[in-house]
Every structure is written in C-alpha cells, then in structure tokens.
Design a protein that fits this description.
Length: about 290
C-alpha cells in the first residue's frame, strides 16, 4: 500500500507529522540515542516487524508510525495492510516493516505511542457515531486536547467518523458565558462581535437557558448557538424555537449512554471533550522477528 493511502479521507498535513515525530524522537533518544540497542545488537542486523492491533478498534496514526520508522531507517520497507479509518478486529496485522533492527527498536515506542493514542480517540469517536445511526446529528470534538497534539487528535476524530470544531481561538468566534457577562449582555456582546469580524468568520454563542436563546434569536446576529448543559427536553424545545434559523450545537456532559437521546432532539452537532482528553489508548504492539 502506498504511504499516501495510509491516510483517512481527512488529510493530515505532513508538516504536522514531521514536527510531531521530531519532538517525540528527540525526547526519547536524548543525547546518546538508544544505548540499549547499540550495546546489545550488532550494527546492520536486519529485522522484520508486524505492527498488530491486539484489540478491536478503529485505526488512526499509521502515517506517524511509518514516519517514525523511516526517520531512523530511510531505507526501511513498509507494507501496510490497513489505512487510517479502518475498523479492525483484535489481533489484526496493520503493517509489516523490514529494516535495521537498531532503528526499528529505537522508533518502536514513538510509533506505538502515537498509533495507540490516536486509535483510541478514533475508536471512541466511532462508538459515538455508531450509537446515533443515521441521525443528522454530527459528533464533534472540542479544544480539550493534549497541548501540542491538537491537529493529530482532531484528525483521529475524523478517522472515527466525527467532525472537528474550531482548531483554535483564531478561526471562529465562540462567545461563552464569561464573555457575555463582561460585555454586558447577549445583545451587546453579539453586536460587538459582528462589528469586528471578517466576512467569513462564524459567530457562535453559548446559552444556558431558553430565555437566553430567545435573546440570541431576537438579535439575529449569530450563526451558531451552543446549548450548554441542556437536558434532553430543553434541547428539543430549543431546536423547535430555532426552527432552522441557526446551527444548533449541544455540549456538556455528553456520554455514550446519552448521545442517542440527544441526537433524537434534532441538534446539528453534539460536541464532547472526552473524545480527545479521556479516550483510552488502543492496545497495539510490535511483533519482531530477527
């Protein structure tokens, strides 16, 4: 399989991969490199590795695993059996690598850390997506990401069938309760935001009550409304009040057990920070032959 085909449909910038691999290998190899492998394995010893998913899940991070291996052994042969976004059974071989044993072992932990972590996020996202079936609601992530890994973790959400919220403070306006309080109310904060943003910048505003939602609708200045910690009955009423005039997002305490009922209210998006900050890693491993 060509390296370009390792990606899911949601492309991940090669610059993000390069930066992530550089930082991770520098952290692991330090000043002297893998002194264990250097001391115990003769130079030039070949090795063959099967990268295996020990548990069932949805895969994300294969391009990073490949990049880590190729960084330390540019001549390594990498044969992928799956691509990011694939759902696999337990004990599935994901990738075979033939290369220098020292290099393979030095890259192992970096490759597996990224692959396990991102696959865990993709697997959790896929579970949410499966739970809501053919609902129009889209599952999305938040900015509750590991510092320095946001682009990678958001890519993993897409691998699991989810969608991305804003990537940072600079690509969309999200007015929260503290902004409303400091600015002097819903109308004041929306008028201020609309007067300053560019043509293509979306404005989302958080509300915590139906009365606040009415204020937002009366202003007519927002593009998206975020229903913060609404219960299901309130969400349903809020969707009816909006009547398609705004995009509606539900957020706050959304779980796998509650997502189906939330989707049934008709909200457009349901966002969960837990997808990126609390998903357990998928168990993946290097099975090595000499």
């Amino acid at each position: 399989m060509s390296p370009s085909l390792l990606y899911a449909d949601g492309f991940l910038s090669p610059l993000e991969i390069e930066d992530a691999i550089t930082r991770a290998l520098a952290e692991d190899l330090g000043r002297a490199g893998d002194i264990t492998s250097i001391a115990t394995i003769p130079a030039g010893t070949p090795a063959r590795v099967n990268v295996v998913a020990r548990k069932a899940g949805t895969i994300a991070g294969l391009p990073l695993a490949e990049a880590a291996l190729r960084r330390l052994d540019p001549s390594a042969e990498v044969m992928a059996h799956h691509r990011d976004g694939d759902a696999v059974a337990e004990k599935t071989a994901l990738m075979e690598v033939r290369g220098d044993a020292r290099a393979v072992l030095a890259a192992e932990r970096t490759a597996l850390n990224y692959l396990g972590h991102l696959s865990g996020i993709a697997t959790a996202t896929a579970a949410f997506v499966q739970r809501i079936g053919d609902s129009k609601t889209r599952i999305c992530c938040t900015r509750k990401t590991t510092p320095g890994l946001r682009a990678l973790e958001k890519y993993a959400v897409r691998c699991g069938g989810g969608f991305n919220h804003r990537f940072g403070l600079d690509d969309a306006i999200l007015i929260k309760d503290n902004h409303v309080a400091v600015a002097g109310g819903v109308r004041a904060v929306l008028e201020g935001a609309r007067a300053k943003v560019g043509l293509l910048v979306k404005i989302e505003v958080e509300v915590d009550s139906l009365s606040q939602l009415k204020e937002v609708l009366d202003c007519g200045l927002a593009d998206v409304v975020l229903l913060d910690n609404f219960d299901v009955a309130m969400m349903k009423e809020a969707v009816a009040m909006v009547g398609g005039r705004l995009v509606v997002e539900a957020s706050g305490g959304i779980t796998l057990d509650s997502i189906a009922a939330i989707a049934a209210t008709g909200v457009d998006y349901a966002s969960s920070g837990a997808l990126t900050h609390s998903s357990p890693s998928l168990d993946v491993a290097f099975d090595i032959d000499i």
